[in-house]
Every structure is written in C-alpha cells, then in structure tokens.
Amino acid sequence: MWMFLVPTFAAEVGPQQPVYDAVVASIEARRRGLDDVAGARRALWDAIVDDLVPRWTGTPWSFYGNAEAPGVEPVACGYYVSAILRDAGLRVERVRLAQQASEHIIQTLVPEARIRRFRDRPAGEVVAHVARRDGVWIVGLDFHVGFLIAEGGQVQFCHSTFLDEAGAICEDPSRSDAFVSRYRVVGELLGDDVVRGWLDGKQWPTVTK
After folding, report:
1. Which CATH code is given to the segment(s) 17-204?
2. Is residue 25 pLDDT above 90, yes or no?
3. What is the residue extent of each domain of the chain?
4. Band (15; pLDDT cuts 50, 70, 90)
5. pTM tops 0.85, yes or no
6. Second label for 190, Cα 20 to 30 Å away, from 28, 46, 75, 157?
C-alpha cells in the first residue's frame, strides 16, 4: 500500500534530472515489456503513485512554474499534472495541456463515460465517489487541477498548491483549502481505454474547447 503524505523523494538542493531521467526510462522499459491490460494497469498505477508523485513532493510552486523534473525549480498545478502524465508514458502535449482549463485536461485523456461533474456539492460527496474503488483520478476545480488517488477507501489530493507552504504535496482533500470549489470534475485515469492507449503508445491531442 502506498503510504500517503510521506515524501519519500522530496525536493532536495540541486538538480535531480539525471536520477529522474533514469526513473522515467525505467517506466518506459516496463511499458514496452507489457502486453496485457491488467498488468499494464498495475504498472501505470505504480508509475504514477509510487515512482512519480512522491518524487515531485516538495517541489516549489510558482504561477508560471514549468519545471521539467522535481527539485528546486517551481512547478504550477497544470505543469505538475501534465509532467506526471507525460513521464508515466502517456503521450500528451505537456506544455499545451498544462495551459488548458482543468476540464479540458481531463477530457484530453478520459472518455465522457468516466467523467463525473459536481456543481455546488460538498467536498465529501466527491471524495466518497472516488473512494469507492482504488484508482487515480484527475480532478479539476474552478482554478486548480491535481490528482485524487484512492486506495483502500482512503483518498489523497496530490497537487502543486500556492497555499501555505507552496509546492507539490499530497493531503486529505476534505481538509484542503485548495479543494474548495463551486465546480469539481473528476476523470478516472486507469480505465481500459486509457491503459490500452498507454500500452500502444497512443498520442493524445489536447482538447481545447
């Protein structure tokens, strides 16, 4: 089980690019060695939840931050999400995707059947929806985007925030000021179609409207 809130590879002083590049290369090697959806789903989960998200933890935030790797250079919320998607092996247009409205980021990858929208609903309702099964969700808010990671009935909100000690963190969404929003949209990332696309090296053109 992934241990939430433990920054196992928090940002350090100095560049992490060579180490990070090796991690990304290992994810790609795993992808190329798979041919079944069940194994690929587990591998994509491992890539996002175990390999990438913890390594970005502690990376500072800035409004225009577009760091290519975790460390001392800042990363904004959209660039955080698009970097993790790209480095997990999903063929997205990292910069263009990061600059879109959060709902368009979700629609780029997730079919409409696995997108759920909540308007003027309590945060707990969104969390309960996601918590029903283990998975990774992209979550879009009024002015923010991140991941919801559900495992064993627990949900964590992983994002790059401008609040408090600004930077990339994972936290309880029900207690997060950054999760406050009139409109929330969630898209389930590990469905069969996305996983098959990951296996096949599919290109995902950015949805912009």
Report:
1. 3.90.1720.10
2. yes
3. 17-204
4. low
5. yes
6. 75
